[in-house]
Amino acid sequence: MFGGGRQRGEINVLLCGDPSTAKSQLLTYVHKIAPRGIYTSGKGSSAVGLTVYVTKDPETKEIVLESGALVLSDRGICCIDEFDKMDDNTRVILHEAMEQQTVSVAKAGIIAQLNARTAILAAANPVKSRYDPKLSVVDNIKLPPSLLSRFDLIYLVLDKQNEAADRRLANHIVSLYSTLGDQRPVDQGENVQSTELLRTNMIDRDFFASYISYARKHVKPKLSDTITMDLVQEYVRMRSLGNSKKTITATPRQLESMIRIAEALAKMRLSEWVEKPDVDEAVRLIKHALQQSATDPTTGEINMDIITTGQTKTSAERLTAITDFIRNIQKDYYDKVSLHGLKYGNLLDFINAKAKDGALGDKDSQVTESEFRDALRALEEDNVISIFGNNRAPTIRFVQ
For 175-215, what is each residue's pLDDT tens digit? Predict the structure, then answer.
C-alpha cells in the first residue's frame, strides 16, 4: 500500500470495556459481512491455532503445514474475542503478525514465512470485570504495551447509565422478539414505525460484502502532495497537544495509522485519491481513541507512554524516585553493604520506613512490591546492582 518497502496496510482495532456492551455481537457481525475472515476466541486459541502447526499427512506420511486463523484470514479480517484471556505464548506470536503481516515457522526441519495480511478486530474485558476510570487501559486489561501499541484504534465501550440511550436500546432488543404485524398495540405504533423505517433503510448484507470486496481489490487510493502536507501538519499538531514537553501525545505509529485510515475512507468512496475530508475524519477518529485510551487518569492529559510503555507520567516519576533513593543508598552505605549485600525484604522495609518521612515525595506513600521489583530491574539493567540467590527473596549487591 505504501511505497519504499513493505508496510502494514491493514487497520487493527481493539474494543475494551464493560461486560454486556455488545462487543462480541459487533465482532460476530463484522465477521459475517467480511468477504474473508475468521472468528475465534482468545480463551480457547493456542499459538499454533492462530498461526500454523506441523502435522503428518495420514496417507503420504509427509510433514505438512496446517494454517491457523491468522494465515487463513490473509487479505481479510481476524476477529478475536476474549483477547485478554490469551496466554503469554499466544500473545508473543501476535507481535509479528500485527506489525510485519507475516507468520514465521521453524519446526520439524521446516523453515517458512507465511503471509498474514489481515486486519485484527479484538475485544477485551477489564481484569476487574468493570472498567475502572481511575486506572489506565494497560492496568485495566493487563495486556503488554508492546501489543497494545500495535492497535491503530483503541476504543472504550463503557456501560454508562443514560435514560434516553437505555430506552433506545430496550426498544431495539424488544423489537427483535416482537412480531411486526396487525396484533401490535396501538400505543407502541411510533416505536414500531421507527423500527420498520430503520429496517427498510438497511443495506443488504450480501451487497455490502461484495462492495467491500470490490473496494479492497480494485481501489488503491494515492496521496497527492497537498494531502501529504496536510498529514504532516496534522501529525505535528497532535504532537503538540500536551501541556508538557515530557508528555508524548503522538508517535510515528499514529501518523501511519492516520494514513491507513484516510486511505480506507477513500476506498469506501471508491476514490482513486485521498482527499481532505478523509484526513479530517482520520484525525478525528484517532484523537477520539486517544482521548479514551491514552489519557493519564492522574493528570487528565494524553500520554502515549501509557500505551507504549505501560506507565503513566505519575508512575514513571514514582519509579524514578525509588531508583534514585536506592542509588543514594549505594553512595551513603556502600562500604557496609558491598561485602554481603542487602536482603530483598530488608531493603524494601528500609525504603518504606524512609517513605513515611517523605523521602519519596509523598508521606505515607508505601512502595508496593511490584514497584520495588520494577526499580530493581531498572537498576540491574543500568549495571548499578546485581541480583543473585533465591528468586522470591534475592540478595541485592551494589556494583562498584
Answer: 888 765 445 444 444 454 444 444 556 778 889 889 999 99
314-398 topology per CATH: Arc Repressor Mutant, subunit A (1.10.10)
Domain boundaries, the chain: 13-160, 219-308, 314-398
Report the DSSP pairing between strands 102-107 and 110-115: antiparallel
At 261 the pLDDT is 95
> Domain spanning 219-308: which CATH class is it, in words?
mainly alpha
Contact predicate 208/220, CB 8 Å:
no
pTM for this predicted structure: 0.75
User: What span, in angstroms and rounded, lies between the C-alpha atoms of 76 and 96?
Assistant: 17
Segment holding 260, helix H or strand E: helix 252-268
CB 54, CB 15: distance < 8 Å: no
Each residue of 250-307: pLDDT tens digit?
A: 788 889 999 999 999 999 999 999 999 999 999 999 988 888 887 777 667 777 777 7
Q: Do strands 13-17 and 153-157 pair parallel, antiparallel, or not at all (unpaired)?
A: parallel
CA 379 from centroid of its chain's CA atoms: 28
Give the bridge partners for 342, in sequence order.
396
- Answer for the pair 51, 89: CB distance below 8 angstroms, yes or no: no
- Domain 13-160 of CATH type 3.40.50.2020: no
Task: Quote the CA–CA distance of 90 and 277 in Å, as a whole number.
Answer: 39
Task: Locate 306 and state its grid cell.
Answer: 501509557
